[in-house]
Design a protein that fits this description.
mainly alpha; 2 domains; two-stranded antiparallel sheet; two-stranded antiparallel ribbon; 10 helices
Protein backbone atom coordinates (compact mmCIF):
# COMPACT_ATOMS: atom_id res chain seq x y z
CA UNK A 1 0.00 0.00 0.00
CA UNK A 2 2.84 2.34 0.92
CA UNK A 3 4.71 1.54 -2.30
CA UNK A 4 1.56 2.18 -4.32
CA UNK A 5 1.09 5.55 -2.60
CA UNK A 6 4.72 6.50 -3.21
CA UNK A 7 4.47 5.46 -6.84
CA UNK A 8 1.37 7.60 -7.30
CA UNK A 9 3.11 10.58 -5.71
CA UNK A 10 6.09 10.15 -8.01
CA UNK A 11 3.74 9.97 -11.01
CA UNK A 12 2.08 13.24 -9.95
CA UNK A 13 5.46 14.95 -9.54
CA UNK A 14 6.56 13.69 -12.95
CA UNK A 15 3.32 14.90 -14.53
CA UNK A 16 3.71 18.37 -12.99
CA UNK A 17 7.32 18.55 -14.12
CA UNK A 18 6.60 17.42 -17.69
CA UNK A 19 3.33 19.34 -18.10
CA UNK A 20 3.88 22.69 -16.43
CA UNK A 21 1.46 24.62 -18.73
CA UNK A 22 -1.32 22.12 -17.95
CA UNK A 23 -0.61 22.31 -14.22
CA UNK A 24 -0.63 26.14 -14.25
CA UNK A 25 -3.95 26.26 -16.15
CA UNK A 26 -5.43 23.64 -13.82
CA UNK A 27 -4.43 25.55 -10.67
CA UNK A 28 -5.66 28.93 -11.96
CA UNK A 29 -9.04 27.58 -13.10
CA UNK A 30 -9.46 25.58 -9.90
CA UNK A 31 -8.82 28.73 -7.80
CA UNK A 32 -11.47 30.61 -9.79
CA UNK A 33 -13.98 27.81 -9.20
CA UNK A 34 -13.21 27.66 -5.47
CA UNK A 35 -13.72 31.44 -5.19
CA UNK A 36 -17.05 31.11 -7.02
CA UNK A 37 -17.98 28.25 -4.70
CA UNK A 38 -17.28 30.32 -1.57
CA UNK A 39 -19.25 33.30 -2.92
CA UNK A 40 -22.18 31.03 -3.80
CA UNK A 41 -22.17 29.58 -0.28
CA UNK A 42 -22.17 33.07 1.25
CA UNK A 43 -25.09 34.12 -0.95
CA UNK A 44 -26.98 30.91 -0.27
CA UNK A 45 -27.14 30.04 -3.97
CA UNK A 46 -26.96 26.25 -3.66
CA UNK A 47 -27.59 25.59 -7.33
CA UNK A 48 -24.39 27.49 -8.11
CA UNK A 49 -22.64 25.55 -5.35
CA UNK A 50 -23.61 22.30 -7.07
CA UNK A 51 -22.30 23.58 -10.43
CA UNK A 52 -18.98 24.54 -8.81
CA UNK A 53 -18.64 21.13 -7.17
CA UNK A 54 -19.49 19.43 -10.46
CA UNK A 55 -16.83 21.53 -12.21
CA UNK A 56 -14.18 20.54 -9.67
CA UNK A 57 -15.05 16.88 -10.23
CA UNK A 58 -14.93 17.27 -14.02
CA UNK A 59 -11.48 18.88 -13.72
CA UNK A 60 -10.24 15.51 -12.44
CA UNK A 61 -11.55 13.66 -15.50
CA UNK A 62 -8.38 13.98 -17.68
CA UNK A 63 -6.17 12.69 -14.86
CA UNK A 64 -8.61 9.85 -14.15
CA UNK A 65 -8.68 8.76 -17.79
CA UNK A 66 -4.89 8.83 -18.00
CA UNK A 67 -4.48 6.71 -14.88
CA UNK A 68 -7.39 4.35 -15.61
CA UNK A 69 -6.47 3.53 -19.22
CA UNK A 70 -2.70 4.22 -19.06
CA UNK A 71 -3.09 7.08 -21.52
CA UNK A 72 -0.93 10.10 -22.19
CA UNK A 73 -3.06 13.13 -23.09
CA UNK A 74 -1.15 15.77 -25.06
CA UNK A 75 -0.84 19.08 -23.19
CA UNK A 76 -2.81 21.02 -25.83
CA UNK A 77 -5.74 18.60 -25.66
CA UNK A 78 -5.75 18.55 -21.86
CA UNK A 79 -5.74 22.37 -21.65
CA UNK A 80 -8.62 22.55 -24.16
CA UNK A 81 -10.63 20.10 -22.05
CA UNK A 82 -10.05 22.09 -18.84
CA UNK A 83 -10.87 25.43 -20.46
CA UNK A 84 -13.95 23.90 -22.13
CA UNK A 85 -15.29 22.68 -18.77
CA UNK A 86 -14.67 26.07 -17.17
CA UNK A 87 -16.22 27.97 -20.09
CA UNK A 88 -19.32 25.77 -20.14
CA UNK A 89 -20.06 25.51 -16.41
CA UNK A 90 -18.64 28.60 -14.70
CA UNK A 91 -18.75 31.23 -17.44
CA UNK A 92 -21.73 29.82 -19.31
CA UNK A 93 -23.99 28.88 -16.40
CA UNK A 94 -22.87 31.00 -13.44
CA UNK A 95 -21.89 34.15 -15.35
CA UNK A 96 -24.72 33.79 -17.91
CA UNK A 97 -22.38 33.99 -20.91
CA UNK A 98 -24.92 31.95 -22.88
CA UNK A 99 -27.24 34.99 -22.74
CA UNK A 100 -24.66 37.81 -22.74
CA UNK A 101 -22.75 36.52 -25.77
CA UNK A 102 -24.94 35.00 -28.53
CA UNK A 103 -22.14 32.87 -30.00
CA UNK A 104 -20.84 31.46 -26.71
CA UNK A 105 -22.96 28.32 -27.00
CA UNK A 106 -22.02 27.96 -30.67
CA UNK A 107 -18.32 28.12 -29.84
CA UNK A 108 -18.68 25.46 -27.13
CA UNK A 109 -20.65 23.09 -29.36
CA UNK A 110 -18.02 23.45 -32.09
CA UNK A 111 -15.32 22.62 -29.56
CA UNK A 112 -17.39 19.72 -28.26
CA UNK A 113 -17.64 18.28 -31.77
CA UNK A 114 -13.88 18.55 -32.13
CA UNK A 115 -13.16 16.96 -28.73
CA UNK A 116 -15.65 14.10 -29.12
CA UNK A 117 -14.22 13.28 -32.54
CA UNK A 118 -10.77 13.22 -30.90
CA UNK A 119 -12.03 10.81 -28.25
CA UNK A 120 -13.68 8.49 -30.79
CA UNK A 121 -10.63 8.61 -33.05
CA UNK A 122 -8.26 7.91 -30.18
CA UNK A 123 -10.19 4.90 -28.91
CA UNK A 124 -10.10 3.23 -32.32
CA UNK A 125 -6.51 4.28 -32.94
CA UNK A 126 -5.43 2.73 -29.63
CA UNK A 127 -7.10 -0.55 -30.61
CA UNK A 128 -5.54 -0.28 -34.03
CA UNK A 129 -2.04 0.05 -32.55
CA UNK A 130 -2.44 -2.70 -29.96
CA UNK A 131 -0.41 -5.74 -31.16
CA UNK A 132 -2.52 -8.10 -29.04
CA UNK A 133 -5.68 -7.27 -30.99
CA UNK A 134 -6.34 -8.34 -34.57
CA UNK A 135 -7.97 -5.03 -35.36
CA UNK A 136 -6.63 -3.13 -38.35
CA UNK A 137 -8.66 -0.43 -40.10
CA UNK A 138 -7.91 2.21 -42.68
CA UNK A 139 -7.47 5.92 -42.06
CA UNK A 140 -10.75 6.62 -43.85
CA UNK A 141 -12.65 4.22 -41.60
CA UNK A 142 -11.07 5.77 -38.49
CA UNK A 143 -12.06 9.26 -39.60
CA UNK A 144 -15.62 8.20 -40.50
CA UNK A 145 -16.12 6.33 -37.22
CA UNK A 146 -14.80 9.19 -35.10
CA UNK A 147 -17.12 11.55 -36.98
CA UNK A 148 -20.11 9.28 -36.26
CA UNK A 149 -19.08 9.02 -32.61
CA UNK A 150 -18.92 12.81 -32.27
CA UNK A 151 -22.30 13.34 -33.94
CA UNK A 152 -23.90 10.64 -31.78
CA UNK A 153 -22.67 12.36 -28.64
CA UNK A 154 -24.03 15.66 -29.97
CA UNK A 155 -27.46 14.14 -30.67
CA UNK A 156 -27.61 12.46 -27.25
CA UNK A 157 -26.80 15.81 -25.63
CA UNK A 158 -29.64 17.47 -27.54
CA UNK A 159 -31.94 14.69 -26.25
CA UNK A 160 -30.77 15.57 -22.74
CA UNK A 161 -31.52 19.27 -23.31
CA UNK A 162 -34.95 18.44 -24.72
CA UNK A 163 -35.95 16.29 -21.75
CA UNK A 164 -34.56 18.95 -19.40
CA UNK A 165 -36.86 21.48 -21.05
CA UNK A 166 -39.86 19.15 -21.14
CA UNK A 167 -39.79 17.84 -17.58
CA UNK A 168 -37.68 20.33 -15.59
CA UNK A 169 -38.57 23.52 -17.54
CA UNK A 170 -34.90 24.55 -17.76
CA UNK A 171 -34.96 26.11 -21.25
CA UNK A 172 -31.64 24.49 -22.19
CA UNK A 173 -32.64 24.70 -25.84
CA UNK A 174 -32.67 28.47 -26.08
CA UNK A 175 -35.53 30.15 -27.95
CA UNK A 176 -35.16 32.21 -31.12
CA UNK A 177 -37.21 35.21 -32.28
CA UNK A 178 -38.26 34.79 -35.93
CA UNK A 179 -39.99 37.26 -38.25
CA UNK A 180 -41.18 34.76 -40.86
CA UNK A 181 -42.30 31.14 -40.76
CA UNK A 182 -43.59 28.57 -43.23
CA UNK A 183 -46.23 26.12 -41.99
CA UNK A 184 -48.80 23.69 -43.36
CA UNK A 185 -50.95 24.16 -40.25
CA UNK A 186 -52.39 27.36 -41.78
CA UNK A 187 -53.22 25.78 -45.15
CA UNK A 188 -57.02 26.21 -45.50
CA UNK A 189 -57.21 23.44 -48.14
CA UNK A 190 -55.49 20.89 -45.85
CA UNK A 191 -53.44 19.75 -48.87
CA UNK A 192 -50.08 19.82 -47.10
CA UNK A 193 -49.10 23.09 -48.77
CA UNK A 194 -46.73 25.28 -46.77
CA UNK A 195 -48.10 28.78 -46.16
CA UNK A 196 -45.53 31.55 -45.83
CA UNK A 197 -46.22 33.97 -43.00
CA UNK A 198 -43.85 36.85 -43.65
CA UNK A 199 -42.99 40.00 -41.71
CA UNK A 200 -44.31 38.90 -38.30
CA UNK A 201 -44.35 42.02 -36.14
CA UNK A 202 -45.82 40.93 -32.82
CA UNK A 203 -46.86 37.80 -30.95
CA UNK A 204 -48.99 37.92 -27.81
CA UNK A 205 -48.52 35.26 -25.13
CA UNK A 206 -50.91 34.83 -22.22
CA UNK A 207 -49.57 33.26 -19.00
CA UNK A 208 -51.54 31.09 -16.59
CA UNK A 209 -52.45 34.06 -14.38
CA UNK A 210 -53.81 36.04 -17.33
CA UNK A 211 -50.77 38.28 -17.86
CA UNK A 212 -50.09 39.17 -21.49
CA UNK A 213 -46.54 39.29 -22.89
CA UNK A 214 -45.91 40.97 -26.25
CA UNK A 215 -42.99 39.66 -28.35
CA UNK A 216 -41.61 41.42 -31.42
CA UNK A 217 -41.77 38.37 -33.67
CA UNK A 218 -42.52 34.65 -33.53
CA UNK A 219 -41.05 32.68 -30.60
CA UNK A 220 -39.38 29.50 -31.81
CA UNK A 221 -38.99 27.03 -28.92
CA UNK A 222 -35.56 25.54 -29.51
CA UNK A 223 -35.59 24.14 -33.06
CA UNK A 224 -33.16 26.69 -34.48
CA UNK A 225 -30.89 26.38 -31.45
CA UNK A 226 -30.80 22.58 -31.74
CA UNK A 227 -30.05 22.55 -35.45
CA UNK A 228 -27.36 25.20 -35.07
CA UNK A 229 -25.75 23.17 -32.27
CA UNK A 230 -25.70 20.04 -34.41
CA UNK A 231 -24.37 21.97 -37.41
CA UNK A 232 -21.40 23.43 -35.53
CA UNK A 233 -20.83 20.03 -33.88
CA UNK A 234 -20.62 18.68 -37.44
CA UNK A 235 -18.06 21.34 -38.35
CA UNK A 236 -15.90 20.60 -35.30
CA UNK A 237 -16.07 16.85 -35.97
CA UNK A 238 -15.14 17.23 -39.64
CA UNK A 239 -12.22 19.49 -38.72
CA UNK A 240 -10.73 16.91 -36.39
CA UNK A 241 -11.42 14.00 -38.76
CA UNK A 242 -9.39 15.76 -41.47
CA UNK A 243 -6.54 16.23 -39.00
CA UNK A 244 -6.78 12.61 -37.83
CA UNK A 245 -6.94 11.24 -41.37
CA UNK A 246 -3.64 12.81 -42.38
CA UNK A 247 -2.15 11.85 -39.00
CA UNK A 248 -2.78 8.17 -39.79
CA UNK A 249 -1.69 8.57 -43.41
CA UNK A 250 1.64 9.99 -42.22
CA UNK A 251 1.91 7.20 -39.61
CA UNK A 252 1.83 9.57 -36.64
CA UNK A 253 4.55 11.91 -37.86
CA UNK A 254 2.45 15.08 -37.95
CA UNK A 255 3.38 17.40 -35.08
CA UNK A 256 0.13 19.37 -35.18
CA UNK A 257 -2.20 16.36 -35.10
CA UNK A 258 -0.19 14.69 -32.32
CA UNK A 259 -1.14 17.59 -30.03
CA UNK A 260 -4.74 16.35 -29.99
CA UNK A 261 -4.45 12.56 -30.10
CA UNK A 262 -3.83 10.56 -26.88
CA UNK A 263 -1.38 7.68 -26.89
CA UNK A 264 -0.74 4.64 -24.71
CA UNK A 265 1.94 5.06 -22.05
CA UNK A 266 4.50 2.30 -22.14
CA UNK A 267 6.30 3.32 -18.93
CA UNK A 268 3.49 2.46 -16.50
CA UNK A 269 3.95 -0.84 -14.69
CA UNK A 270 0.97 -3.16 -14.56
Amino acid sequence: MKKKHERRRSEWKETIRNKKPVFIVYVILRLFVICALVLSLIRGNYESVFICLLTLVLFLLPAFLQRKWSLELPSALEIIILVFIFAAEILGELQSYYLKYPYWDTMLHTTNGFLCAAVGFSLLDLFNRNPRLKFQVSASFLALTSFCFSMTVGVVWEFFEFFGDMFLRLDMQKDTILHSISTVELDPTQSNTAILVDDIQTMILRTGNGQEIVINGYLDIGLYDTMEDLLVNFIGAVLFCIIGYFYIKKKGEGKFASQFIPRIREDIPS
